[in-house]
Design goal:
UDP-N-acetylmuramoyl-L-alanine:D-glutamate ligase, 17 strands, alpha/beta, Protein-Tyrosine Phosphatase, Chain A, six-stranded mixed β-sheet, 2 domains, eight-stranded mixed β-sheet
Length: 429
């Protein structure tokens, strides 16, 4: 029986290697039944999408906190440590509670393992979230999907409201080879009785989502069609915009997170609390959007040299990163340190950087899914490319070379970013 966080971490690491990702809901339902179906006692907002899930969730959370609502959140992956995936308000689950909740699941895990139907690492973690939240009397749970939607572990819930943030080509070996096929999987979170709010504006995937909503008789609200972002400005603090939905308008919504995409994520959050919750006042909306931040997403770590880390883990995310750089730092030169998981489309991600970079340094990190630096180097076509297998040395090299009117951007994989962020913060201190 495991008794420490170190042992639980080791168990989860081995579990991930042994079972990997195995989609379907039957194991999850069996695991939850053994716990007494704790998920059925909770209210939810369910969030899916290729990019933007975490930021959208954080905007909603900050608005609800400003309104005095006790809110739980389940997110993935974690940036620094596993506990941050299970939060009540802004407090992550303590080690003591994490161990106690895991011990509740342990006999059920053993029984399922003995039948050859063992739950995956993510299924166990999701079940832990349901159990923990149900024991702590929260008003609402913000639930982020892990991957996809239709067969995602989290899709055992009946939400008050569902959100699909974006659609891009990702995990094509699992979700499908076209945007329409991926949209079909994401739209699997749409349930009868729960309105759907969508940030998907591409004609093909948007049509898939709208048709699913129509088939279930669900109210459907689309960014750019039913609600809008306007009057965009850059300010000293960050940026601001106006929000419009039907007869509701909110002017001068200020925010610290940067990029057009973040204004759209914030608009999804405002639409969600406006349509799905009662008596959320404008003051709470403005306070929540203004205070929201999401570590590892276009996060400035230092000024001299200027270093930004960003978890752009797919080609669409890389496009957003480039757009945000050009918008907020025009006239700068961009130097990149890049590493990725080998099951990501790193060739296209690198290609996306090649047109903007003065230099690309590729590296690798210790993880069974990590791509090796040599492979990344061979896939990179930039004339000024370098390879350094030691990621800390690669970052040190990049910082040394980064001068005035230049930015060092470290990107590629969220897991890589978790290592990088801890290293850089320690270096700054």
């Amino acid at each position: 029986m495991v008794t420490t966080m170190k042992e639980i971490n080791h168990f989860f690491e081995r579990r991930q290697v042994q079972l990997g990702m195995n989609f379907g809901l039957s194991r999850m339902e069996e695991l939850l039944a053994g716990l007494g179906d704790p998920h059925k006692a909770l209210k939810y907002i369910h969030i899916a999408g290729s990019n933007g899930k975490g930021s959208t969730l954080q905007y909603i959370k900050e608005i609800l906190l400003a309104q005095g609502i006790r809110v739980a959140s389940f997110t993935s992956p974690y940036l620094m440590r596993m506990n941050e995936q299970l939060k009540i308000n802004e407090d992550e689950i303590s080690d003591k509670d994490f161990i106690a909740v895991f011990r509740e699941l342990w006999p059920i895990i053993q029984e399922m393992d003995s039948k050859g139907n063992g739950p995956t690492q993510f299924e166990i973690l999701t079940a832990m979230a349901f159990f923990y939240f149900s024991k702590n009397e929260v008003d609402l749970v913000l639930m982020e999907t892990g991957l996809g939607g239709r067969l995602d572990t989290t899709n055992v819930i009946q939400p008050l409201l569902s959100i699909i943030t974006s659609i891009s080509l990702e995990h094509t070996n699992i979700l499908g080879n076209t945007l329409g096929e991926i949209a079909f999987e994401k739209a699997g979170i749409i349930k009868r009785g729960a309105p759907i709010i969508s940030g998907v504006t591409g004609r093909g995937p948007a049509k898939v989502i709208e048709e699913k909503a129509s088939a279930l008789g669900v109210p459907y609200y689309q960014l750019g069609k039913d609600f809008h972002v306007g009057k965009i400005k850059q300010s000293e603090r960050g940026q601001s915009f106006s929000f419009h939905l039907a007869d509701r308008s909110i002017e001068n919504v200020e925010m610290r997170m940067l990029g057009r995409h973040q204004m759209e994520n914030a608009a999804l959050a405002i639409a969600a609390v406006t349509l799905g919750m009662e008596n959320i006042d404008e003051k709470s909306i403005l306070k929540g959007i203004g205070e929201a931040k999401w570590d590892g997403r276009f996060e400035k770590i230092s000024d001299e040299p200027l270093v930004i880390i960003d978890g752009a883990h797919n080609p669409a995310g890389m496009d957003v990163l480039k757009e945000t750089l050009k918008w907020h730092y025009p006239g700068y030169k961009y130097r990149f340190v890049f590493s990725s998981f080998k099951d990501k489309n790193y060739s296209e991600m690198l290609h996306g950087l090649e047109m903007e970079a003065v230099e690309i340094i590729v590296t690798e990190f210790d993880h069974e899914r990590a791509a090796d630096a040599k492979t990344l180097y061979e896939k990179c076509n930039h004339p000024n490319k370098r390879i350094n297998k030691d990621w800390q040395a690669a970052i040190t090299e990049g910082r040394r070379k980064t001068g005035e009117k230049e930015i060092l951007i470290i990107t590629g994989s969220l897991h890589f970013l978790s290592l990088v962020r801890e290293f850089l913060i320690r270096e700054e201190e």
